[in-house]
Amino acid sequence: MRHFSAQWRRSIPTGLLLLGVMVLAGCAGEQYPQSSLHPKGDFAELVDGLFMNTVWWATAIFILVEGALLWAIFKFRGKPTDAEPKQIHGSTVIEIIWTVIPAAVLAVVAVPTVQTIFRTAAIPQASAEGGEPLLVEVSGHQWWWEFYYPEYGIRTANELHVPVGRTVDLRMKTVDVLHSFWVPQFAGKRDVFPNRETRLWFTAKEAGAYPGACGEFCGEQHAKMLFHTIASTSADFDTWVTSRKADSVAYAMPRSAAQIAADTTAVAPVVPVSAQVAEGQRLFAMKTCSGCHSLQAVGGPKVAIGPNLSGIGSRRYIASGWLENTDENLKHWIRFPDSVKSGVKMIVPPMTDAEAEAIVAFLRTKQ
Ligand code: CUA
Questions:
Q1: Cα separation of 244 and 314, whole Å?
Q2: Which residues does 78 contact at the CB level (< 8 Å), separation at least 6?
Q3: Ligand 1 center to residue 32 CA distance, Å?
Q4: What is the Å distance from ligand 1's center to 307 Cα?
Q5: In the chain, domain spans
Q6: Which residues line ligand 1 (CB under 6 A)?
Q7: How does pLDDT run across 34-82, given as a tens digit for each residue?
Q8: Tell me, what DSSP letter sits at residue 123?
Q9: Cα 92 to Cα 110: distance, rounded to the nearest angstrom
């Protein structure tokens, strides 16, 4: 016995250290924002409320049960001089009690659970504050997300823009295998299927950029099927809508300064582009990028093989939320997509560093 207790005593510091680490990990909420414990919308608040409700019930029961156990251990602990205690086998009364109490507890917890299930599964309705819900059609692709706004005709990818205060009504499908749409701070996970539409809704309450992910294993790059939800004030959201529409004019072929000067038919002011940007634009078509990617948010092809690149110059991330949108990362992604996401469908013909740089310079102009 002495040997065991000495060993046990030695492991106390390690145990305390582990406990400390676990407690401190719980404080890192802002650093790891992809958590349903920091709700920023009504749907997530309902789920979080249910969770906290259950946690408090469970804590109270834990304290009662463990308190009674500790009390019994100390109160009825044996002494070396005690005789062997009376042996008991089975007690119908006690067994009924310890079956009925947990059943009653579960029945109590079931009430808010079922209420929350029905409330979150309801079809979103127009409200006095937010007006009509904003419909967004979501499509899952291996391995990126497409978002289409029928109200504005805007198509985009990997960045879901939503206005604060207006409910978003997501109608979701997939073009290939099963995926699962998940923005923990706004709503619970919802699987998406190829042949059946699933729905999800939420109302953002706070502006910001919130990470989201695919929550269902969907192949080699499932872990890199990320996206961001950009919640902004309704004025900022309107600005985004306007900018997406403005950028949707099909890009004219680049012209020389002399051609522009000689053009007497031009009515709109021509934005001068550098030789590198013009070269990038030419390469974008030449290197077959334009075969899969549309640069137009409005009026582009309906079925996109690759993500829509409207506004790619100002997106926060590339490669479906995996890489920060720096020139260096974008260049690497364009030249060697398979080294970033092995198995990705982006097939790129060989290109030089300078060619990739030109394409990056061109894409940067798509703000
Ligand atoms: Cu899509 Cu996992």
A1: 12
A2: 85
A3: 20
A4: 15
A5: 32-73+91-122, 134-245, 249-262+270-364
A6: 140, 143, 179, 214, 216-218, 222, 225
A7: 888 889 999 999 999 999 999 998 999 999 999 999 999 999 888 888 8
A8: P
A9: 27
One fold for 134-245 and 249-262+270-364: yes
Judge if pTM exceeds 0.85. Answer: no
CA angle 90, 93, 65 (to 5 degrees): 90
Q: Please state which CATH number belongs to domain 32-73+91-122.
A: 1.10.287.90
Name which residue sits closest to atom 1 of ligand 1, judged by CA.
Answer: 179
Tell me the per-residue pLDDT of 117-160, one tens digit each, with 9 for 90 and over: 999 998 888 888 888 999 999 999 999 999 999 999 999 999 99
Q: Is the separation of the CB atoms in 157 and 312 below 8 Å?
A: no
Q: How far is the CA of 218 from the centre of ligand 1 (A)?
A: 4
Q: Which fold has domain 134-245?
A: Immunoglobulin-like (2.60.40)
State the residue for tokens 């680490």: 21
Is CATH 2.60.40.420 the right assignment for the domain spanning 249-262+270-364? yes
CA 213 to centroid of ligand 1, rounded, Å:
8
**Distance between CA atoms of residues 78 and 74, nearest Å:** 9
CA angle 158, 145, 152 (to 5 degrees): 75
